[in-house]
Write a structure and sequence with these properties.
EC number: 3.2.2.-
Number of strands: 5
Bound molecules: 5-hydroxymethyluridine-2'-deoxy-5'-monophosphate
Radius of gyration: 14 Å
Subunit structure: Monomer and homodimer.
Keywords: Glycosidase, Hydrolase, Nucleotide metabolism, Transferase
CATH architecture: 3-Layer(aba) Sandwich
Family: Belongs to the 2'-deoxynucleoside 5'-phosphate N-hydrolase 1 family.
Largest sheet: 5 strands, parallel
CATH topology: Rossmann fold
Strand content: 15-25%
Distance between the termini: 18 Å
Organism: Mariniphaga anaerophila
Length: 141
């Protein structure tokens, strides 16, 4: 299974360590196409490609080749929102994970979308359980 993991980069790297932990966990289910999102050296000021066009085109190719998109959406990111929209438009299975303990409120354009699964979680153990169920139960919960 090819998994596209989406997490904030320029939107802020407060959850970068969590992204790395999610990616390591996702690797037990299949190939994670976007391992660089967990790179602790990748900052919100940086980029992991030569140009923005290169990053966009490379990521979109990965996204369209993936079986599923899993996004951690607690840190608001325009890029993650765009990826979710493109995945939904392409009919992909999409799981969005959000920690409501923060002061942030998710965009209604994500939490209100009926064509994806939007799930709140509190602990990493809970998050892993949700991912396991989603991937094991044919992208449903
Ligand atoms: O350098 C990058 N590399 C990269 O793969 N992305 C993609 C993957 C992430 O899921 C998403 C993050 O978007 P943003 O940078 O707007 O927070 O965009 C985004 C950037 C920078 O915008």
């Amino acid at each position: 299974m090819k998994i596209y993991f989406a997490g904030s980069i320029r939107g802020g790297r407060a959850d970068a360590a969590l992204y790395l932990e999610i990616i390591e966990f996702l690797k037990t289910f299949g190939e994670v196409l976007t391992e660089h999102i967990g790179d602790p050296n990748l900052t919100s000021a940086g980029k992991d490609g030569i140009t923005d066009r290169f990053i966009h085109d490379r990521d979109l190719e990965w996204l369209l080749s993936a079986d599923v998109l899993i996004a951690e959406v607690t840190t608001t990111s325009m890029g993650v929102g765009y990826e979710i929209g493109r995945a939904v438009a392409d009919g992909k299975k999409v799981l969005c994970l959000f920690r409501p303990e923060t002061e942030k409120i998710p965009s209604a354009m994500i939490s209100g979308c009926a064509d994806l699964r939007f799930v709140n979680y509190e602990t990493v153990a809970e998050l892993k359980n949700i991912i396991t169920r989603f991937l094991a139960e044919n992208f449903d919960l």
